[in-house]
Each structure stands twice: as C-alpha cells, then as structure tokens.
Design a protein that fits this description.
With 186 residues, the chain is mainly beta. It has one helix and ten strands. The chain has one domain: Lipocalin (Beta Barrel).
Length: 186
C-alpha cells in the first residue's frame, strides 16, 4: 500500500508535475445490454501543479485523445467512437480542467478528498466531481514528493454530453477511474 502524501506545509512552493514514464490511463465502465464493459483511453497530456502550502489551489489540466479509446470488443469500440456517441472524428480530444480541490480530513489530498472541474466531451463542457487521492510512492521517505500516485473516481451521464447513441443497449451512466504516476519536473 502506498503512503498518504502531502499534508499542508510540507514543501515551500507550488510544484509542476508531469506524467511519469508509466503514463496514465482512464478506465471507464458502462453497461452494455446489462453486462459491464470496461474500456480505456490513454492520457496524452497532463499539466499539473501541486501547491503544498495551499493544497486547495493545486491544479490539473488533462487531455486524452478519444480516437485511441478501446474496449475489449471491436464492435463496441467502433460504436463508442461513432458520430452518435463520442464522435471522435469531429471531437478527437476530451479535456478536464480543474476548478477546485476539496481536501480530506486533516487537510490532506488522501482519505476523502475530491477534485471538481469541467469535463469537455464532444465539444460540450459540464461540471464534474471526482473522488481523489494522492500518495507518495510506497517506501519513500516522508518528505520525498518527487514521484506521486494519483487516483480519481467518479461517474458521468453520457447524455449530458450528447453521447446518446445506442440508448437501447447502453445505459447512460459511465463510471470513470483514473490512475496515474506523476513526477516533479523541478
């Protein structure tokens, strides 16, 4: 298990972070004809800043290319990228821009924190909220924040973004799980 990270006052200035060599993936789950189907979208870019003296001011700007979305079923993958769902040909990028961080108990970015922001899919932007956690690498020293693990979990209603295709087969709720390893750039 990773070690919880970053309570207020641990570093002196806002720190820029980037995806580490392991990168990051968005895993999504939807119900197809009553059965759960998982898919992935790799994250192309993440501009992240963590401010340890004011964790609530930390920011995230993340972009993923939905043309690279995949499920375990080729027909579901093609339907997902079609004009009636993600419309990947016309809107290849999904974007999340944070608007606020709600700290967990003790002013931490673990154990009950959340991140709010705006998610843009198909050219439609809507507010979202994800449960969030940020942890130091397991076994790292208590002040070593060079590499961190981030997890985000939440749900969206795909119809809020105009992704209405295959409504007779696919439920509207889509669960999103994001796992990333990030590294300080300074």
């Amino acid at each position: 298990m990773a070690t919880p990270a970053l309570s207020t006052g641990t570093l002196a200035a806002p720190q820029p972070y980037r995806l580490s060599g392991k990168g990051a993936t968005i895993t999504y789950t939807f119900q197809l004809n009553g059965a759960p189907v998982k898919g992935t979208v790799p994250i192309d870019r993440a501009d992240l800043t963590i401010d340890p003296d004011n964790l609530g001011a930390s920011t995230a700007n993340v972009t993923a290319n939905v043309r690279r979305a995949r499920t375990g079923l080729i027909f579901a993958t093609e339907a997902l990228k079609s004009a009636s769902v993600l419309n990947a040909a016309a809107f290849p990028l999904a974007r999340f821009q944070s608007t606020g961080v709600i700290l967990g108990p003790g002013g931490r970015l673990s154990d009950g924190a959340a991140i709010e922001g705006e998610l843009t899919l198909r050219g439609v932007t809507r507010p979202v909220r994800f449960d969030a956690a940020l942890y130091r690498r397991q076994g790292s020293a208590s002040g070593d924040f060079r590499t961190l693990n981030v997890t985000l979990r939440g749900s969206v209603d795909r119809t809020d973004y105009g992704a209405t295709g295959y409504g007779d087969l696919v439920q509207n709720r889509v669960d999103i799980d994001i796992a990333a390893e990030i590294s300080a750039t300074a």
